[in-house]
Amino acid sequence: MAAENIERTRGKTEHHVDVSLWFALLFLLCFGLVMIYSASSYTAFADYGDQMYYLKRQAVAAGLGLIAMVFVSRIPYHFWERFSLFGVLASAVLICLVKTPLGVESHGARRWIKTGIPGFNLQPAEVAKIAVILFLAVMICKMGSRIKTWKGLIVMMVAPGVLFLMIWKITDNMSSALIVLAIAALMVFVASPDYKKFILVGFLGVAAAVGLVMLVKYTDVFDSFRATRIRVWLNPESDPDDKGFQTLQALYAIGSGGVRGKGLGQSMQKLSFLPESQNDMIFSIICEELGLLGAAAIMLMFTILIWRMMIIANNAPDLFGGLLVTGVISHIAVQAVLNVAVVTNTIPNTGISLPFISYGGSSVIFLLVEMGLVFSVAREIEYRGY
Amino acid sequence: MQKQKTRQFGRISQKKVLVLFFLVLAAFIFLFARIVSLIKNNEMEYQKQVLSQRSYDSRTLPARRGDIVDSKGVKLATCEKVYNLVVDASVMTTKDGKYIETTLEALGQCFPQLDISEIRSFVKQNPGNQWHVVLKKLTFDEISEFKALQSENKEIKGIWFEEEFRRVYPGGSLAADAIGFTRTDNHGLYGLEEFYNKELNGVDGRTYGYLDDDLNLQRTVKPAVDGYTVHSTLDVNIQSIVEKYLQKFNEDHKDHHHPGNGAENLGCIVMEVNTGNILAMASYPTFDLNDTKDLSALLGGVQVEQVDKENGYFEIKKTGKYIDQELLDSMTDDEIMTNLNYLWKNYCITSSYEPGSTFKPFTVAAALETDSISTDSYYECLGSWQVGPHNIHCHNRYGDGTISLKTAVAQSCNVAMMKIATTMGAEKFSKFQQAFNFGLKTNVDLAGEARTADFLRGADEMDPSDLATYSFGQNFNVTMIQLATGFCSLINGGYYYEPHMVSKITNSSGVTVKNIEPRILKQTISASTSEYIREYCKAVVTEGTGKAARPAGYMIGGKTGTAQTYPREGNDFVVSFIGYAPADDPQVLVYVVVDRVNEAKQDNVGYAREIVRNIFTEVLPYMNIFMTEELSDKEVKELEERKLENTLKYGKAMENPDEGSGETTQGEQEKDPAWKSFPIDPATGYRKDPSTGELLDPDTGDPVKGTYSAVDF
Predict the structure, then answer these.
(1) CA-based R_g, chain B, Å
(2) What is the rounded distance in angstroms from the CA atom of residue B554 to the CA atom of residue B619?
């Protein structure tokens, strides 16, 4: 399809319109809205007296996000180059604002700041993600061949590393921090011609993680909130009423859905048993209502989305464009994979939302802005005749 | 675009993006496999788990208990929604207890009666507790301030309001005995509330969940059916008039002879003669239906105690003491409950007593009906009559002389009654007692009607002295409702109507579910006998012992009654008057019993007579019964003082107001009885019978200490 689209493009004035990408994106967005309504109507009515409370807010955010996306896609992406450093600094400032009275607390964590728009609070971590994508794309272009050296790699990771620490320590949000780090690592991986270093770092990372889990499992060295999460991950039934509750309920939802699911709207777990059912845990409600087939459809849509973006990256007019798209791919892929991994208890429970589907205004708006960047890159692809 | 410097997204990077894609794909495939394995290994188990943690809670939806209304639709008992304040410590202590103080502050602001520090310590000690009721039965107004605060401030958490219905009696103590009340679980106690408990309660609804064939949870709601409305025959206006005069009587006589109420019991029944509808039923002492356990209602009443007997039976006995604050404070909870139970009883249907002379018209009616006597019979009364070993006195110890049957009733002669009963014989007498339902229940639709079968001997058990004393209403017990209902049939042509309190039952939307029409149970006597009885009872008022009962402007019939209570050596009396109006076409009957008035001298039927007169004076104009008698100046003045507009209207319409004819007849009939000539004993202040040395009351001529006698007017 991609080839056809490109072949049909005649002359510079006609732009590359990726129908498959649009389809996958809109499918995920609309499907997300349907599932948010299904998962949240019960608790929304119980808490706010309005079944569509969450749906309405998410629909407004998605609408704003689409407008922003179209707007960004019309701006040549090089326009953003000059804001790369500013973006990183701005997100650092925003992260610090969380600690000021502008900060907003929700769900027991202080991760949002007031925007002045009623009903919408901004999550600085979302700004940081897009800032890191832009910053690294610019940095890698400037670094040139120095990226091959260890020194180059480390210099590259300084800014993302600082943001990583800030998000983790200041907003106490390790999952977002890890995503920022992962985006940076994947972008550097794509830009660097080397494999060995990454395999080495990856191996070391996995070894460290396994070592940590072993330590937590067999010793009492760590006794923190995250250590408890790891213990619960290893054995959710050990604490079914408290720490393991959410994980277990998510597993019950997935397991009880079976292959064909209970039918749209028929979830029982959403009836106040599964906390955050419209948010991080929405994938388990999808599994419960639509079964294995629904889960497969979602994963397929993400695969198509990423595949189409990969085509765009590979056909990008220049390195900067390609890296931008790679950053967005990394962002969406990491969040989608980690979210499903959390819901299926493949990794310890941590708050990661499913892109385009989970409830969350900041998240969907910034994801759509990132998609705007991707479409902007796609617009400048020229038919090169291969 | 800086074409020269632009670096391309090189082949290596393109390959690496592909690698990245495949990594993601691999991750998705791995996760998919994981979901497959989850489903494969755990589907059934998790389905069960999901179903088991659902609560198919079948929650009860409370039905609203129906109202009790009077004949005009005025609410006597109704329900209002109230709220219980519930503290949910488990919610309040979430988020490290940040909600506790804001919530408690709001509570303290809106409910000053709460002890906030106590709640604080409860919440801290029981952080898992979800249901702690701290205030009960708050009205909507009382909670609205807090609700407003709660909607403003999101940090007020862990407070719920549980809805409930509360029984409310707008009249307070009005008709308390007849209406009864409810326990907190909506179970009626006493009176209409108990008798019509089932109809009033309705059917609770239910909401429950179940699983259909596809294991989907379905919810079903079976709505509550609200209770029926019971339309009573009571009329709040008449009831209020009755209670006003009972209250007044109590005020007038309380603390006179001994500290305490004006009488041990006062009872009054107002009944429609031709339907058996009860228009008013009251007794004193009474209590507040909205606060049934208010102990101040016990003050002034006689104290009772529970005497346990074998086999779990017990008896309620009077201790002879009157309850004052000091005694009340010294009583245990059980003793207080015993006394409250005694207070809550409806004197008109649960207490039995010897009727005394009000029974005499029954004796006469039975004798006439069986042709044992004729209407022109004459009886000689010498003051007493020898029955077997007993010499039974007439109230007038020195004899009424030779009197007609009419005069025998009017002057309430015991000797004449004994002679009549003896002529009739025990067999017939007993048959007629049964015909009038003495010894049987009347089946009035009120809970707690007393069984009186054991207080009455049948013909086979009766000896001549029983028959003799029964004839003038002594030695057997009746309830007020028995006597009033029987009396109605005496004067209405012989139709015995089942007495009842309820005329109609409607459902919550006003549709009639059941109509209760007046029900004639039997014909007790013939219409002609009834006419004679009316004539004799009218004579009681025109020329006999009931003269003072006649209300201004009306002619009534009636009968007085005085009965000495057990033990006979005591000086305690139950005095009563049963009257009906108009005398020739009876419509309404008023029966008042004064049990042991708080005076040194209790045997004055005037106590009951006065109450009946007061009630008639107000009730008859209210019932639109026209005046037939001329008003004297004194009566006009009295009516003016009472400010009864209706009565006055009728009074002024009268032309040529003549001096009351009643006074003239009084003068004619008044002749000094023999005892009035006896000298007064200076030591005691009583008259002394020179032949026997017996002390007599200086005003009434009654013996001060009864021998075996019924002292009757």
Answers:
(1) 37
(2) 11
Residue type, B505: I
A268 vs B9, B17, B217: nearest CB: B217
* Interface contact B46-A271, CB threshold 8 A: no
What distance in Å separates the CA atoms of residue A99 and residue A103, rounded to the nearest whole number? 6
Q: In whole angstroms, how far apart are CA B414 and each of A312, B168, B357, B382, B672?
A: 125, 49, 8, 10, 19
pTM, to two decimals: 0.60
Determine the pLDDT at residue B458: 83
Average pLDDT over residues B213-240: 83
CB B319 within 8 A of CB B303: yes
Q: Which residues of chain B does A317 touch, with a Cβ-Cβ cutoff of 8 Å?
A: 1, 6
Q: Which of B302, B309, B381, B402 is nearest to B343 (CA)?
A: B302
In terms of CA atoms, which chain B residue is nearest residue A287? Answer: B35
Handedness of CA A112, A113, A115, A116 (dihedral sign): positive
**pLDDT tens readout for residues A25-74:** 999 999 999 999 998 888 887 777 788 889 999 999 999 999 999 999 99
pLDDT for B102 beyond 80: yes
- Three-state DSSP at B281 gives strand
Cα dihedral B703, B704, B708, B709 sign: positive
The burial of B410, by beta-carbon neighbours within 10 Å (0-12 exposed, 13-18 middle, 19 or more buried), is given as buried
Angstrom distance (rounded) from CA B577 to CA B200: 35
The angle formed by the CA atoms of residues B177, B181 and B182, to the nearest 5 degrees, is 160
Is the CB of B51 inside 8 Å of chain A's CB atoms? yes
Residue A97: CB atoms within 10 Å: 16
Please list the ranges in chain A whose pLDDT falls under 50.
1-4, 6-13, 385-386
**Chain B neighbors of A268, CB-CB under 8 A:** 50-51, 54, 217
Among A residues 180-199, those touching chain B with beta carbons less than 8 Å apart: 186, 189-191, 193
B402 touches chain A (CB under 8 A): no
Q: Which residue in A100, A104, A130 sits closest to A117, CA to CA?
A: A104
- How would you class B463 by CB atoms within 10 Å of its CB: exposed for 0-12, middle for 13-18, buried for 19 or more? exposed
CA distance A36 to A30: 10
Architecture of the domain made up of B80-166: Alpha-Beta Complex (3.90)
Pull the structure tokens for residue A228.
């408890």
Query: Among partner residues B21, B46, B49, which is closest to A307 by beta-carbon distance?
Result: B21
Query: Which sequence spans correspond to the domains of chain B?
Result: 80-166
What's residue A10's pLDDT? 46
Residues 6+ apart with CB under 8 A from A299: A336, A340, B28, B31, B32
Contact predicate B130/B151, CB 8 Å:
no
Q: What is the pLDDT of residues B293-306, one digit of tens each?
A: 888 888 888 888 88
Structural domain boundaries in chain A: 20-74+235-381, 98-194, 195-223
Q: What is the pLDDT of residue B105?
A: 84
Task: State the nearest Cα–Cα gap between A340 and chain B, in angstroms.
Answer: 7
| CB atoms closer than 10 angstroms to residue B600 | 9
Instruction: Classify residue A107 as exposed, middle or buried by CB count within 10 Å of its CB (0-12, 13-18, 19+).
Output: exposed
| A346/B1 CB distance under 8 A | no
Test mutation, A188, A194, A237, A268, chain B, max B CBs within 10 A: A268
Contact A346 B34 (CB under 8 A): yes
Beta strands B75-87 and B132-138, pairing class: antiparallel
A58 touches chain B (CB under 8 A): no
Residues in contact with B316: Cβ distance below 8 Å, sequence separation at least 6, in sequence order: B304, B305, B306, B307, B338, B342
Give the residues across from B393 on adjacent strands. B384
Please name the residue that has the structure tokens 């001298």. B601
